Amino acid sequence: MNSDLKVALDMLEREREISREALFEAIKNSLVTACRNHFKSADNVRVEIDEDTCEFHVIATKEVIELADDVMDPAIEISWDEAKEIDPQVQPGGFVEVEINSKEFGRIATQNAKNVITQKIREEERNVIFNQFFEKKADVITGVVQRRVGKGYSINLGKTDALLLDTECVPTERLKQGGRIKVYVLDVLSTPKGPKITVSRSHPTLVKRLFEEEVTEIKDGTVEIMAIAREAGSRTKMAVVSHNPNVDPVGACVGVNGSRVNAIVNELYGEKIDIINWSENPGELIQNALSPAKIVNVFADPEERTANVVVPDLQLSLAIGKSGQNARLAAKLTNYKIDIKSETQAKDAYGFRVEDYMDDEYEEGEYEEEYTEEGYVEETTEGSEGGEEYIRMAMMPKRVPQRQCAGCGERKDKKELIRVVRTPEGEICLDDTGRKNGRGAYLCRNVECLKKAQKKHSLERSLDVSIPAEIYEQLEGAYEGIGESAG
Questions:
Q1: What SS3 state is found at 5?
Q2: What CATH number does the domain located at 402-486 have?
């Protein structure tokens, strides 16, 4: 038994987590390389290793030549007399297997063999580290801040280092050398120098993963995080839902005396976290997302993903938040474009009044009853010191909403207008289906309104882009096939 080799292999397998099969393959390749350097050829050489005892044998298959003087290459040929000492039955022209003593290799061949083994061990070690961290991609791990590197920080993860770029740092955080932090693994790439790992402290999913670690109910699936919006270093809003009616999702995330949420707040160096109840009702979800502000009315359009919200006069600044942060996070959380007005402002604003969504054929009182049956309006009554307080949340009924023509300024049903859209790629075109992604404006189905919009530059203001004359010519040409024919 080769005890020294066995001990070395056991140590490499245990400490560096390199498989024994890979180590045996490295030894075989190194011995073949040594033979090639020593004999200038190794095509007829094979290596056999007993994986239990770690005994290895280098065997060369040589052709038997009748006369010793006729042996031209000792590396691949052997005389008949020498071959009969190994196999008495062998005949000239046959082949015999000859064991090579590896101790006879020269210094250069031995050094090359050592380099092959070292290189293979490094490659396997890089592969092991890459596989370990690739499995942790999109997960949270703990690291130690080492030093400043270019436009970021080097974070030690134990077996390797990761890069935390300035763009992925929280602006309000001041990282200290030697400090332990939790980071979100953004990407893991395999490179010749080893795995390249990039991490983040500002990614919204970091907060989600921290709650999954801290809250047992989230880990076992009883509570689910449905949406999350974050402005790193300042505030995060998170919507949760419980799949068990006996479990309060918000209470589970907060913990007893706020123990669970406070642990995450401390990890994020004081970042505020708002936890709200998720709802499939857009009106209720938007109301929850705008908390702590009180809401009077929510008029949500699920097709357009827009919502008009009415709040008490004294709650307007609270609903919008400092620098618009509360409204901005609520919009990200709900994926709705939210427009907020006070009760005074809403009185003269179309789309912020209940009567704007009432059809003429309904008589007074009849509309509210029908509306409630379809589930579009919910009314809740809450007790307060000033008496009863009524809050109405309404989803827009399934009727064609009205839009204003950018040319003539007249309001019409959306189906009577043509939408001009600026796509995310920057293309400006007509969208007769109303389903293209991008920023849009509406025009009547006649080319005169397009010309008026061009003269007033109203399309440019609506689309927030400068429109060259040739684009207007293209739009005018498209009108011939869409606008006027449909009109």
A1: helix
A2: 3.30.1230.10
Half-sphere exposure of 333 (CA within 13 A, CB side): 34
Q: What pLDDT band is residue 358 in, cutting at 50, 70 and 90?
A: low
Compute the distance between CA of residue 109 and CA of residue 33 in angstroms, rounded to an integer: 8
Q: pLDDT tens, 153-165?
A: 999 998 889 999 9
What is the average per-residue pLDDT within 70-90?
81
The answer to whether 420 and 475 are in contact (CB under 8 A) is yes
How many other β-carbons are positioned within 10 Å of the β-carbon of residue 97?
13
User: What class is the 136-202 domain?
Assistant: mainly beta
Position 2 pLDDT exceeds 80: no
State the fold for domain 279-399.
GMP Synthetase; Chain A, domain 3 (3.30.300)
Tokens read off for 415: 């189906």
Q: Buried b / exposed e across 455-487, counting CB within 10 Å, b at 16+?
A: eeebbbebbeeebeeebbeebeebbeeebeeee
- State pLDDT tens for residues 179-218: 999 999 999 998 888 889 999 999 999 999 999 999 999 9
Q: Supply the DSSP string of 232-273, one letter for each residue.
A: TTTEEEEEEEESSTTS-HHHHHH-GGGHHHHHHHHHTTT-EE
Contact predicate 71/78, CB 8 Å: yes
Backbone angles phi, psi at 430, to 5 degrees: -85, 140
**CATH number of the domain located at residue range(s) 3-131 in this protein:** 3.30.1480.10
